[in-house]
Amino acid sequence: MDSTRWRATRIFALSAITVGSILSANGQAAATPTGPDVSSWQHVDGRFIDWFAVKRSGHDFAMVKATEGISYINPYFVADSVLMRAAGIARGTYHYARPQLPPEPQAALYATIVLGQNGPLDLPPVLDLEHSGGLDPGALINWTHRYLNTVQALTGRVPIIYTYPNFWKTAMANTSEFTRFPLWIADYRDNDEPEVPGGWPTWTFWQTTDRGSIPGIAGRTDLNVYSGAQGDFARFANMG
């Protein structure tokens, strides 16, 4: 999950999404859910992430890389998962797609490693789709359907798609076949809203930068914000 500059982003969500704050039912300003996404790259020199510091700095969730292709498992995945739960941070997990390899074994590897996505503090599973693997749009669309359908069958939850606008418009021919899946969009331009491709009515998560800085995480990290598109975040994240 990829690159440019950091900027602080907050959004206003009642029925529509704009920049600002979310008002709670009692009229008080409530923080928009935000969080990083991490992989082994955020474990600089093998250091663990201090998830309690991440939580104290105001972040409610994090997305953690679990698997890639048909053989790679993030060596820090289990430790991050355990410590995130202990800190009270909602956990999203993602599989980095390698479409040059068949989708079903990738889905099976992912589902085996994450041990389900239905426990307390679990967000839905995520497919990180940002390379075509040399497939043309028709073949890549078919690959994506097969992967998502397999993961949904194995986990019992509708997966989230992570992508970025130019990739979707070119490698996926801007198809609108996937609008039933929540969208996590990477768009680092200095806009009030991200670009939403593929006929999605709105975005669910927005990755605003890969140059963020968060207490407890060494070096730079991606930053994300939740739009409210899937309703109450606590319910979406199985927070009880």
In short:
The chain is α/β, with parallel strands linked by helices and 240 residues long. Helices cover 24% and strands 24% of the residues.
Helix content: 10-25%
How many individual β-strands? 13
- The residue-averaged pLDDT reads 89
Backbone shape: globular
CATH superfamily, called what? Glycosidases
Alpha plus pi helix count: 6
The domain count comes to 1
Which fold name corresponds to the CATH topology?
A: TIM Barrel
- Read across the widest sheet, the strand sequence of neighbours is 5-6-8-9-10-11-12-13
Task: Specify Rg, calculated over alpha carbons.
Answer: 17 Å
Task: Note the run of SSEs as H and E.
Answer: EEEEEHEEHEHEHEHEEEH
Strand proportion, as a percent range, falls in 15-25%
CATH class: Alpha Beta
Distance between the first and last residues' Cα: 29 Å
Main sheet attributes: strand count, strand direction, barrel closure:
8 strands, mixed, barrel
Unreliable segments (pLDDT under 50, ≥5 consecutive)? 2-29
Keywords:
disordered N terminus, 24% strand, eight-stranded mixed beta barrel, 240 residues, 24% helix, TIM Barrel, 13 strands, alpha/beta
Description:
There is one protein chain. This protein is an alpha/beta fold and about 240 residues long. The model is unreliable at about 1-30 (pLDDT under 50). A hairpin with a 3-residue loop joins strand 1 (about 10-15) and strand 2 (about 15-20). It has a single domain, classed as TIM Barrel (Alpha-Beta Barrel), CATH 3.20.20. It contains 6 helices and 13 strands.
